[in-house]
Amino acid sequence: MDEKILILEGSTISEISRKKWAHEIQGHVSKEIKTALDFMSEDHHKVRNFVVEELPRLGKTLPPEIIAENVDLAVDDVNRILEELEKHLTFLFRNDQGAVAWAYPITVDITPHRAVFSTGEKKFKEFLNILRLFIGESQNLESSHLTHPLYKYREEISILETDVDDLSGELLGNFINKVGKEKVLDIQVVPSITKKNRPSNIIKILCYPKYAFELMDKIINELGTLGVRFHTINRVCIERMIEKQTIEIYNQRFEVSYKVSYIDSEKGKQFVNIKPEYEDLNRISEALGIPLRKIQFIVQTHLKQFLNNF
What we know:
The structure is a single chain. The protein is α+β, with helices and mostly antiparallel strands. It folds into four domains: 1-36; 42-141, Arc Repressor Mutant, subunit A (Orthogonal Bundle); 153-236, Transcriptional regulatory protein pf0864 domain like (Alpha-Beta Plaits); 239-308, Ubiquitin-like (UB roll), CATH 3.10.20.300. The protein has helices at 18-36, 42-58, 64-71, 75-87, 143-147, 169-179, 212-223, 278-288, 292-308, and strands at 4-9, 12-17, 92-94, 100-103, 106-107, 114-119, 130-135, 154-164, 186-193, 199-207, 229-236, 239-249, 252-265, 268-276. A hairpin with a 5-residue loop joins strand 3 (92-94) and strand 4 (100-103). Helix 2 packs across helix 3, helix 2 (42-58) packs across helix 4 and helix 6 (169-179) runs antiparallel to helix 7. The longest helix has 19 residues, at 18-36.
């Protein structure tokens, strides 16, 4: 015997076959879901499926590096996919450190949340009159953050630090030159004083997380240090490009490379800074026998013309 479903429409109650009701509901929902998920590629599904399966099993956040390693994708691609999944409201969210903390209905954040379902009386031809409301506390997403021009420039980097107090300047300089050619974003040497009042240096290296342990191995072997401190943070790094321009100085023409940094937003490109490359300035200084500081001033004056066409 086919069961019946009672449907209330205004003050009228009508019957419909349960099978017919289920068929209509399933067909409509399937179409809506397919439309909502059209943006997802095979890689999107790989990332989301992995997170949904692993988050409840591990009970802790999933950094992009772990996801990338398990789904065989680059970290940059995983970060882009996670951002797109957040943008399309697939109930997958990251914390302030960029790790996935919520893949609905699982979250490793301590936050009260619940879901409420309800139906309305009015029937619509194009969609079901069903409301699903999620109640909780958002700990990491602010609308102002998502719409800010700098939000898309977020990226994860690792900071490696170690202290050395028994290296000569030659050995330290050799290390900087050697590691500087590796997968390093930046390197700094900060003079310091140890607890025994010995002069020391704090070596700080910035790199992408996937290169952290490879570089730590080089630090330990090259410097003989006993340990390396490291942590991963978020940073914003805006657009930059390298351009070349021929400049005439004292009737001689020189090609100068310069770096332009800018922010690409809805209002267009917002210029931030323009800086000629040191190597080119030094080459011109030696060729003309003019102090480097004066050459820099002359080149900067010429480069100001670039801003008018930026």
